[in-house]
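Dear Dr. H.,

I hope your travels went smoothly. While you were away I took the liberty of generating a structure for the chain from your last submission, since the lab meeting agenda had it listed for discussion. I wanted you to have the full record in hand beforehand rather than looking at slides cold. The sequence, exactly as received, is reproduced here:
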Amino acid sequence: MTDYNLLLPPPSNSQASYWATVTQASPLRVQLDGDPGALSLTPDTLVYGLQVNDRVRVELDTNSDATFKARRVVVIGKAGGVAPTNPFPVGAIYLSVVSTDPGTLFGGTWTRIQDTFLLAAGSTYAAASTGGEATHVLTSAEMPSHTHALTVAFSNVTPLNSASYPSGFNSNNSGTGVVPTANGGPANTGGGGAHNNMPPYLAVYVWKRTA
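The corresponding predicted structure, in token form, is as follows:
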């Protein structure tokens, strides 16, 4: 934001509030009482639906040195209006693609939530419960029903009686009609690795107000 040299005397600390008049609704511009023109930066606001000539209370976050330049402006109230309430009470979640700590915008203490999806609470998932995993290895119970090819290696074909081979068999272990001795089993396949468990996503900064 562009700093604006204020003509008013510097306050005793880096934050102070003043009365101002709305000079432009979109983008929002305000002129502090005693200043010759509107501030050059767009204020944040806790009051919505402001119109030109509305009287508002403005809080300035300024440099603490002698230059007294405005770094941030927040409209915190409107003359004749209802006192604004903080749109983010304790327990609220704030989302943004900008990394700014919402405490600098709305006050309070905020904790950043990282690498976690949000899920609407209900009868299945209680509010503030956690869970899930980014990747997952299937267990045997989770695998879909399926079949495998069976490979069998025939060994000695034994006649059903000592006198002769069964009909269709000979000493070369070929033929049909009996159950020979066999070795073998289903062929193994697969690597046992984890699969990606993520839906399509847009990564944002997520904050939770704690105080």
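Two observations you may find useful: The radius of gyration is 37 Å. The domain at 4-78 is CATH 2.40.50 (OB fold (Dihydrolipoamide Acetyltransferase, E2P)).

With kind regards,
E. W.
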